[in-house]
Amino acid sequence: MYFFYFIFLVVACIAITYLFKPKNEENKNEKPEKKESNAEYQKLNRSYLIVYSLVVTGDWLQGPYNYSLYQSYGLSLEKIGWLSVCGFLSSLVLGTYVGSIADKFGRKKMCLIFCLLYGTSCLLRYVPDFYILLFGRVLSGISTSLLFSCFEAWLINEHNSKGFANSLLSNTLTWAAFLNGLTAIISGLIGNVVVSYFSYAAPYGVAVIFFAISAVYIQLNWNENYGDTSAEGDKKEKKEDKKEEKKSSALIKGISVIFKDFTILSVGLIQSFFEAAMYIFVFLYSPILEEAHKLSGHDDELPFGLIFAGFMVCIMIGSRIFNILTQNNWKVITISLPVFLLGTLSMLLPIITMNEHILYWAFALFETCCGMFFPTLGCIKSEIIPEEVRSSVMNLFRVPMNAIVVIVLLKISSLSQEIQFIICAILCALSFILSANIHSKENAKAKAATTEKKDN
Q1: Rounded to the nearest 5 degrees, what angle is found at the Cα of 114, between the Cα atoms of 109 and 118?
Q2: Whole-prediction pTM value?
Q3: Tell me, what DSSP letter sits at residue 148?
Q4: Which residues of 398-421 are buried (b: 16+ CB within 10 A; e: fewer)?
Q5: Domains of the chain (ranges plus CATH)?
Q6: d(CA 114, CA 100)
Q7: Measuring CA to CA, which residue among 8, 12, 3 is closest to residue 318?
Q8: 219, 300, 330, 447: which could join 325 in a potential S-S bond, CB 3.0 to 4.6 Å?
Q9: Which residue ranges run through the membrane (predicted)?
């Protein structure tokens, strides 16, 4: 059954990708400047996506084998649980600070530091000592914060500095989400092969290779960029900014920016709530599908590798749907509304029914929403976050998410499945309410602008 579901999703993904290809305009009549600009964009697009694919492959290689590796070292369930919590706590506390210095230190440098830290974290998994493994989880928590802030901040700065259109940025972010799903499937296959030949630690060794290749490519092909503090304002304002920089850290400036602008605060909360639901969902789908499978009278084991691969194809489908909608001139904030609404509904279904097929397709719908969410939020963040504190703000956006996940993980044994899914549904619903508020404000601004034009 799950094999046919997977085949259906793959066919659907291929059909959507090729039937709704963007129409390439004829290049023959293009001006030389446009051709040159397009060549520059393609170079940036290719450079970013190569690195992004390599680093997320290294990231995905680790996930499926954490529990099995720790168990093979004879660690108790309690210690394994603390290792998981430690990763999120590290991202919450240390990752937020380390990621925030990228704006001054340099985004390229921080991406290289990410490769070093994550590679070291993977190598430490070969040591069967609890405290060494704990330190490895601290490093991986910091690395995760850098992965989801510095790389995107580097891309947006390069994109804006070269004057490329916003539609081209959404195209890059769409392909990044698509490749995220594809590399997850490839990583699963690589992981299965190396574990069968070596040990549960083998995928971490392979991940180190991917991070090393990424570091070399970044060093050779990426420019350095920083928070742009020179764009606007006169000389007096610049002098004041320099004085402020000495007094306050990038982190404090980032906090100030978030709380001064309600839209930026709302987007931060939207990201935190939805991503928290996403991370909590990872711990929920396996046990509830197993329970539903047994309730339907089956004794065989579920093919979780195939189920996971199917969900990753859904992320790829979601990224292509986002691309189709943007091609049809949907505003990015408008796209976010069905994403969060459908995400909420998909998290409510496990509370209503235990039908195995309904649950699978509800979860597939949620993963499709995740595939639309990544490029949607990336585009929104690129428009509203000031360049000079981009990395700081993007790291601060992850603070509530890490806090929510840590609290839920610490209490997960005392919470029923229904309560856990209700928490996920509430988080998605809050994201919907906040995005609906931003959408209504944007519509009000647009109406006011058109009224002004008519009056003039």
Answers
A1: 155
A2: 0.84
A3: T
A4: bbbbbebbbebbeeeeeeeeeebb
A5: 2-6+47-226+244-447 (1.20.1250.20)
A6: 13
A7: 12
A8: 330
A9: 6-22, 80-98, 110-128, 134-156, 168-191, 197-218, 262-284, 304-325, 332-352, 358-380, 392-413, 419-438
